[in-house]
Write a structure and sequence with these properties.
This protein has 9 helices and 4 strands, in the order H-H-E-H-H-H-H-E-E-E-H-H-H. The protein is mainly alpha-helical. Strands 1-2 form a two-stranded antiparallel ribbon. A hairpin with a 4-residue loop joins strand 3 and strand 4. The two termini are 25 Å apart.
Amino acid sequence: PELLQEFIGRGFYERVVRLGQRTAEMHLALASDSTNPSFAPEPFTSNYQQSLYSSLRKLLRDRFKLLRQSMPKLNVDAQRAAERVLGLEEELQECFSEIYKVRINATKSRIHGDYHLGQVLFTGKDFIIIDFEGEPGFSFSERRLKKSPYKDVAGMMRSFHYAAFGKILLNENYRQQDLEFLESWAEQWQHYVSRFYLGAYMEK
């Protein structure tokens, strides 16, 4: 829409497209050496899918445990929202079942592992990707595991979402009547920026 074109701007659109292209080039480079076992791409296997399923269920359990422990620190409205989320734990756990029930025809490779806007430097014309040490919370052996490159893509798109909503959610000075208006614009911004980024990534 024309209004969104004006809101996002041509220059920013071009930067997001460039970032999508550079992300794709990073993944192609990381998967380019088929002679090196540490970097050669590998197909998903049933064992890997089962392992992925188990790790995601553990991640969800850990996050729900953290939410329960944080309940006393939350205000009343946040506690109500948290209680609704906690009531969905079993249903959310079941969502992961297709990961091992359905054969996934995909490839895993070495990835960045901790990819977000804080891991790219903008030179004024292009992007430099930094900090390839992986997710800080994981052991070195876990960081070396091959995964779907879409994990990096999802991390960057989550970073766009945080960029759009962070200031709104963390700033207590906004009037309540303005929040709905601001959130609607933030939603539109992150939707289109993520779409531009993903489209450029897929074309590469």
